[in-house]
Amino acid sequence: MRNINKVIKTIVLILIIMAQLSGIVFAADIVTWNPVDKSINLELSNGNLTATGTRIVKATHGKESGKWYWEVKAISDNAYMFAGIANSNYSVDNDNLGMLSGAGATGYYFTHGRYAFNGVDYFGSPAVTSAKNDVVGIALDVDNKTIKWYKNGVLIFTENRLAQIQAPYFAAIAHADNVVSTVNFGSNPFEYPIPEGYKPYNEPQQLVTPPTAPTNLSAIGGNESVVLNWTPSSDATSYTVKKSTAAVGPFLEISSVSTGTTYTDTAVQNGITYYYVITAVNSGKESSDSNIASATPSESGRGILVIYMTNGVRKEFDLSKSEIDAFTNWYENKSTGVVGTPSTFALNINSNVKPFTKKTNIIIFNNVYDIEVHEYKE
Known about the structure:
Layout: H1 2-22, E1 33-38, E2 42-45, E3 50-63, E4 67-74, E5 81-87, E6 105-109, E7 114-117, E8 120-122, E9 136-141, E10 146-151, E11 154-159, E12 169-184, E13 199-200, E14 215-222, E15 225-231, E16 238-244, E17 252-257, E18 262-265, E19 274-282, E20 285-286, E21 293-295, E22 302-309, E23 314-320, H2 321-335, E24 344-349, E25 359-364, E26 368-376
Parallel strand pairs: 4-13
Antiparallel strand pairs: 1-3, 2-3, 3-12, 4-9, 4-12, 5-6, 5-12, 6-7, 7-8, 9-10, 10-11, 14-15, 15-18, 16-17, 16-19, 19-20, 19-21, 22-23, 22-26, 24-25
């Protein structure tokens, strides 16, 4: 029985360590410095909130979204210390300088008025030093990819390039020359007001799921332009527009749309077919791709689109060149099995509209037998 109990305790301990390493947040967890993700020459005490010695330690939990705040201060006369963040790939033992100065980390150096970012040291910026018992507050905004440092409640520096470092981000410190420091992740009252909109780092992270993909993407070519429209995703805060000159991609990001569900691409040439997808974005999470839409920009003109239906009916539409191109591109994509191409296409009827404001004919792909295009100049 004693051996069984020992095995059970060992399994529980292993599970706890694995959870700490992976950054999983349990409802009752209290964030501390991680005793299994620290340099060998750094010792932890006071419930793993006080660090003594040299080199690096990361927090038990990382952040993938949200806005978080914590405070660090040196309590030894020697205050040679960096405070900032490191990602999960950052090794606490492979940083030769031991100062959060390698790729995958960023930190503010208390005593030298400098900071490091993703493998580069910046001397003399910020030109503010800190000493024993100075409180350095750190505000991490994962959603907007920024991190700010405060000294005794006063903002001293903002880094806006956090997107260059892969999330999740872990609070981290780095000591030189046997510094002693303490951290407050929010289990105790902060010494200075928490910045508006931020939460204590100690609070559990609310998991964010990727938004649903946009639907019904359409592309209409004009003279040296392509107009995109799509049906919105209800949980998106912005959209990413991606383009390729091949139906199979690769699709490269060309723009971000924060309002509305339309975009005009003017970086195109007449006579070339372009393919597009849209993704929805929310709190740093990105959806899968929308359906693929394509268009071929061309000079203005008109034509008669003739559609022969499988039941023998012949339909004619007097359309602009860009409207005809949109239809023929849809028909070609559907014929060749391009994934995500809708099974129907809406054509506007431009004649005899009154007294209606708009007349639309919905063409079902499976009901189309053949098409013809007769172009003419206005």
